Amino acid sequence: MPGTDAAGFQERYYTSSDGLMLYAREYRPDEAASTGRLPVICLPGLTRNTRDFHPLALLLSRDTAAPRRVIALDSRGRGNSAWDENKANYNLAIEAGDVITACTALGIERAIFVGTSRGGLILHLIATTRPDLLEAVILNDIGPVLEAEGLARIRDYLNSGRKPADWNEAAVILKENHGASFAALAEEDWREMALALYRDIGGRPVADFDPAIAGALKSSDFSQPLPDLWGQFESLSRLPLMLIRGENTSLLSQETAGEMARRHSRLIRHAAEGQGHAPLLHLDSIPTAIRAFLATCR
Fold it and tell me: Which fold does the domain 10-147+227-294 belong to in CATH?
């Protein structure tokens, strides 16, 4: 397996309220240089993990002008966090509780949060249950309304059954599945995505999440109206809020993004050109936009 750069972070483990061992990566800059700045906590998507945020976390924690402590979390059943024997616990409410537990375990009373896809949905819940934790929020290609087309696409590729024989094939499969929406990605980006999504087991890349998470989507009927989170979104209205939307996303519509801006007059919007769901946050102009947003926060 190609090597993963482990420099720049510490591995942290903590226990959920129901006894599950959960994992985090902590990127700590020089304490004197980051004094007075709140940390950034990153929450990944449905089947993703802390490795998605590694390039961005390095950029933010090593920023020469305004470094910040960055923490990325593996949700239960993903990455280095333990799988849950009770598969019903893979739900937003339980996972939001895990984030709150992580903050307690890591001594964080308030932070700036980045939520990619499902991570952003979790932040909608935290905004209503523990608003005191949130200083500012960055939503990565997610909002209060999810498009059925995008959810069906996620369901289908997660349950396609095709498994790579080696790391080259892993990158090829990812490009075949997502290349039409991610014209901005170079070949090296596909290889990095493979390293983020898969782990090495017996010399082979294997998807790094509990298969039950994908399996739960098989019976989903996306032809029926989906519940929305507009009520929870209103709880974000008091906060500095940034929305990153993939130019080619099928999960977050322009109409929903526009309504989010109407309901949150100070919403900062950034388009991830040449990317679909969900944008890679370390590419092109996105890190510059994120740093500009963070400069307005504590």
Answer: Rossmann fold (3.40.50)
